[in-house]
Design goal:
222 residues; TATA-Binding Protein; four-stranded antiparallel beta sheet; 47% helix
């Protein structure tokens, strides 16, 4: 299982711009400037070996990797242990991850990554319909299931764009030198930490948005 887990995690990390090395000492090395900065264990925990690179950038990478390692471990374990989804007229086998209030949450591994689907049971309860498909988007699939099944109200969830706006607004507040109390600063930093847990690449996304806006302004001035 560890070999399969490391392979999947390395693929997901690569999609998010994080470099890894071949597994060694039963861990997956996470690289910074071609040197191990931390490692992921088969359990999904991130650890640091004595010879691993230490720097503020390495610490930031450590915290960036942790949500991915936990997420990949969670969905791979769930798919492996879940029973087959029993539903008529399905062309492929899916594992039943959860079912509530007539809504089904299923998943399977594919050659392109892990596919997750939310379905509604049909009138007879033997088939499924109205599928929402998510490739390499486990967190989004879970949110969709929770909303469709009535486990959480949609109004209580922020979209990724809204989270980006909140994060950048807090940045702007700090940069403006507003007269904040220590408690206010702590609370705002805590909100940013929560957003980083949900969107580990939030800083890269904001940088890309800012660069796009800058390029557009330069293009207009030429």
């Amino acid at each position: 299982m560890s070999e399969k887990y490391f392979k999947e995690l390395a693929r997901i990390l690569a999609k998010n711009g994080i470099e890894t090395a071949f597994p060694e000492k039963n861990t997956l090395p996470i690289l910074l400037d071609s040197r191990p900065a931390c490692r992921v264990e088969p359990s999904g925990c991130v650890c640091i070996f004595p010879d691993d690179l230490r720097s503020p950038e390495a610490d930031e990478l450590y915290h960036k990797v942790a949500p991915f390692s936990e997420m990949v471990k969670e969905y791979m374990t769930a798919v492996e242990k879940a029973p087959l989804l029993k539903a008529t007229a399905l062309d492929e086998d899916f594992k039943l991850l959860a079912e509530f209030n007539g809504i089904v949450f299923a998943g399977r591994g594919t050659e392109y990554g892990y596919m997750f689907v939310t379905w509604q049971r049909d009138y007879e309860g033997t088939g499924v319909c109205n599928g929402g498909y998510y490739l390499d988007a486990y967190a989004a699939a879970k949110r969709d299931f929770a909303v469709r099944a009535g486990l959480i109200e949609k109004q209580l969830l922020f979209s990724n764009d809204q989270l980006l706006n909140i994060y950048q607004s807090i940045n702007n507040t700090f940069e403006a030198g507003c007269n904040l109390t220590q408690e206010d600063e702590k609370n705002l930093s805590g909100i940013q930490d929560q957003i980083e847990d949900i969107l580990p690449d939030v800083k890269e996304r904001i940088a890309a948005i800012q660069q796009k806006a800058l390029d557009a302004m330069q293009g207009q001035s030429m």
